[in-house]
Amino acid sequence: MPSVVKINVLTVSPQMREELERRFSGRAGMVESADGFEWFELLRPQEGTDRYLVYTRWRSEEDFRRWTESQAFQRGHAQAAAEAGAQGHGQGHDGQGHGHGQGPVAGASEIWSFEVVQSAGPKPGS
Ligand code: HEM
């Protein structure tokens, strides 16, 4: 079964970029223990877009779905929501501890889904 890639595409205003990166630098680090988790990267836009990409790769669609319904996901996002609450941005969140969607760090978010068709890493010893 090919791995699946799930990318959370975050539209972040210039004045919130530093805050987003600060939040991720303090992230919970719970996704690393999720079943079927393979890789995570936060990609800062350099050219061609102003959107941040939260890149995650999973053994299967099912593993990703289970993570998004897990405590680890809730807790992995609770910090952002708690901080949003502390900064008086608390209104309108889904109460699930998610500072998502209309959340303060991101003006908008959408998920892109891919299947890994081909992949390559550096040649061993090269
Ligand atoms: C709906 C909009 C979303 C927003 C605004 C958002 C925002 C954030 C923020 C600010 C953090 C930093 C952690 C913190 O502040 O405590 C975070 C963590 C994270 N987000 Fe999201 N997120 C969203 C949905 C998603 C989705 C759908 C994915 C998967 C594709 C994802 C993947 C991650 C990962 C892997 C972490 C690190 C969790 C950990 O360390 O355990 N997020 N998110």
Walk me through what this model shows:
This protein is an alpha+beta fold. It has a single domain (4-89, 98-115), classed as 2-Layer Sandwich (Alpha-Beta Plaits). The chain is 29% helix and 25% strand. The protein is built from three helices and four strands, in the order E-H-E-E-H-H-E. It has helices spanning 17-25, 61-68, 71-89, and strands spanning 4-11, 37-43, 51-58, 108-115. The longest helix has 19 residues, at 71-89. It starts with a strand and ends in an 11-residue tail after the last strand. The model is unreliable at 89-101 (pLDDT under 50). It binds protoporphyrin IX containing FE.
CATH class: Alpha Beta
What fraction of residues sit in β-strands? 15-25%
Strand order of the largest sheet: 2-3-1-4
The count of helical stretches stands at 3
**Which stretches are poorly predicted, pLDDT < 50 over at least 5 residues?**
89-101
| Pattern of helices and strands | EHEEHHE
Largest sheet: number of strands, sense, barrel closure: 4 strands, antiparallel
* Rg of Cα set: 16 Å
CATH topology: Alpha-Beta Plaits
Helix proportion range? 25-40%
How many structural domains does the protein architecture include? 1
Mean pLDDT: 86
Ligand species: protoporphyrin IX containing FE
Can you tell me the CATH architecture? Answer: 2-Layer Sandwich
| Beginning-to-end CA distance, first to last residue | 28 Å
How would you describe the shape?
globular
What structural class should be given to the helix and strand makeup?
alpha+beta
Number of strands: 4
